[in-house]
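> call design_seq(struct)
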C-alpha cells in the first residue's frame, strides 16, 4: 500500500490528522490518524442530527474511525475496530460527481497526536496550516470525486490515478452538548437494509486498471514486491501464466493470493533468477511476452 497523510500545522507544531492507504486493487482506506485509545464517554452524530452514545464503555485502547472506500463503490465506516455503517457511491473508476464519504470533528487541533518525521512515514503529504492557536472546534468533510478536484472550502486534495480524495472544512455540528465539547465526533452516511455494489469486485478491479492503462494492462507490483498480472476479462477458472524472458536464467514462480484466494481474473508471481526469488530488482524489462491461459 502507498501512504498519504493530511497534517495540520499550528504555530511551529505539526499534528497527524488523516492517513490514506491505497491498495493495488484501486481501493483506499481513510483513517483518522490517532493512536488507539479508550472510547469511553464517546458519541457519534446520528442521522437525525442528535448525538448517540457509543456502546463500548471499556477502557481498552481501540483504533480510531476509518472509512474503507472500495473500487466497487461500497463504503464501509469502522469505529473502534467494528463496522458500523455501509453505503454506496459510484464505482471509483467511473465517478462523475463528488460524493460525501464521512465527517470528522475535532475539539481542537492540540488533541491530535504530534507528527514525528522519524517514525510517521508516508509517500506524500499535504499540510493545512492554521495560523493562530485556538481552542475552537474544527470540522472536516471527507469527499471523493473524479480527478482532478479542488476543495470547495479550505482543505486539501490528494489526486490518485482516476479519482481525488478531499478533506475540507465544513460547518461544525449545530449543537454540541457540554459533555461532548472535548470529544472527537464522527459521522457517516447511514442507510437501511443491505447495500449491494453496482459491479462485482473482479470486474471493478479490471475496469479500474483499464481506465488507467487502456485495454493492455502491464504487470505491476504489490506492496510486498510480488508481481500481479491481470486478464482482459474474467475466466472460467484460475488462469495459467505463460511468460518468456530475454535472459535464460529468469523464470517465474506462481504464488497464492492472501487467504488462499484463486481469482479468475489475475495471477500473482515472483520473477526468479539463479539465486531464487529476486525481491529487490524490477525485472519486468526482461519480459518479452506474457499471457494468461484458461477456459473462457
Amino acid at each position: 500500500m502507498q501512504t498519504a497523510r493530511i497534517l495540520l500545522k499550528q504555530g511551529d507544531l505539526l499534528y497527524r490528522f488523516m492517513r490514506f492507504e491505497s491498495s493495488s486493487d484501486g481501493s483506499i482506506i481513510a483513517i483518522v490518524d490517532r493512536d488507539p485509545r479508550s472510547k469511553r464517554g464517546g458519541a457519534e452524530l446520528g442521522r437525525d442530527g442528535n448525538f448517540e452514545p457509543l456502546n463500548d464503555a471499556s477502557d481498552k485502547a481501540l483504533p480510531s474511525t476509518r472509512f474503507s472506500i472500495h473500487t466497487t463503490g461500497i463504503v464501509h465506516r469502522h469505529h473502534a475496530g467494528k463496522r458500523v455503517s455501509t453505503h454506496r457511491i459510484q464505482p471509483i473508476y467511473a465517478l462523475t460527481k463528488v460524493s460525501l464519504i464521512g465527517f470528522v470533528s475535532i475539539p481542537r487541533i492540540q488533541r491530535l497526536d504530534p507528527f514525528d518525521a522519524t517514525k510517521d512515514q508516508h509517500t506524500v503529504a499535504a499540510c493545512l496550516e492554521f495560523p493562530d492557536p485556538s481552542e475552537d472546534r474544527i470540522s472536516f468533510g471527507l469527499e471523493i470525486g473524479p480527478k482532478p478536484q479542488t476543495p470547495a472550502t479550505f482543505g486539501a486534495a490528494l489526486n490518485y490515478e482516476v479519482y481525488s480524495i478531499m478533506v475540507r472544512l465544513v460547518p461544525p455540528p449545530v449543537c454540541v452538548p457540554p459533555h461532548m465539547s472535548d470529544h472527537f465526533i464522527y459521522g457517516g452516511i447511514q442507510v437501511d437494509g443491505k447495500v449491494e455494489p453496482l459491479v462485482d469486485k473482479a470486474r471493478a478491479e479490471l475496469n479500474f486498471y483499464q481506465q488507467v492503462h487502456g485495454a493492455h494492462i502491464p504487470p505491476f507490483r504489490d506492496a510486498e514486491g510480488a508481481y500481479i498480472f491481470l486478464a482482459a476479462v474474467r475466466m472460467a477458472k484460475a488462469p495459467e501464466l505463460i511468460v518468456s524472458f530475454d535472459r535464460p536464467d529468469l523464470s517465474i514462480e506462481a504464488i497464492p493470493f492472501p487467504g488462499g484466494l484463486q481469482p479468475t481474473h489475475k495471477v500473482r508471481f515472483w520473477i526468479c533468477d539463479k539465486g531464487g526469488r529476486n525481491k529487490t530488482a524490477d525485472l519486468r524489462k526482461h519480459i518479452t511476452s506474457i499471457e494468461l491461459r484458461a477456459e473462457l
